Amino acid sequence: MADAAEEEHITFAEAEADAGDGDGAQDAKLDPDDALEKAINDLQDVVDKDNEATTAGLSRTLREIPLEVQAVIGRAELSVAELNGLEKGTTIPLDSRVGDPIDIFVNGVRVATGQMQVSEEEPDRFAFKVTNVFA
Which residues are within 8 A (CB) of 81 and not within 5 positions of it... i.e. 6 or more apart? Predict the structure, then answer.
C-alpha cells in the first residue's frame, strides 16, 4: 500500500517539476486538477496516434480483400426437361432487351446497375459502365 502512495507522490512530483520554466527553478506549484488534465491529454494523444496507425493498417488490409463482381445481363426460366434438352447451339431467350441496364453484384449483393459495352483496353471483351450505385 505504501508503494502505491510513494509512486503517486513521485508521479505528482514529476508533474510539478515539468511545470517549471526549464532552468531548474519551479514556477507556481502545479494544481492537481491541471496535472490530471495534462495526463489525460497526453494519454489521449497516444491513443489517437495508435488509432490512426490501426486504421491505416486496417484500411490497407481491407483494400486487398478480393471480391467477386458479377454483371447479370438477363435471366431465363427453364424447366428440368428444357435444361436436360440443351445442346450446343441452343438459344435461350433472356428477360432483358438490348440496351437494358444490367445488374452488378459484389459477392452476391446487388450494388449497382450499368450498361454493357466493349472494353476499351481489350476490344474483344465486354465491360460494363456503372450508371447507378446503391447506398
Answer: none
Question: How many folded domains does the chain comprise?
Answer: 2
**Looking at the structure, do residues 12 and 32 belong to the same domain, yes or no?**
yes
Mean pLDDT by 10 residues, the chain (135 residues): 48 49 51 78 76 71 84 93 94 90 92 90 90 89
| Pure H helices in the chain | 2-18, 32-63, 80-84
Task: Please report the pLDDT score of residue 24 as a whole number.
Answer: 46
Q: Are residues 32 and 81 in the same domain?
A: no
pTM over 0.90: no
Q: What is the pLDDT of residue 60?
A: 74
Cell of 84: 436436360
Which residue reads 484500411 in cell numbers?
59
Locus of grid cell 494519454? 43
Q: Residue 39: which domain range?
A: 2-17+28-63
- Can you give the CATH number for the domain in which 118 is found? 2.30.330.10
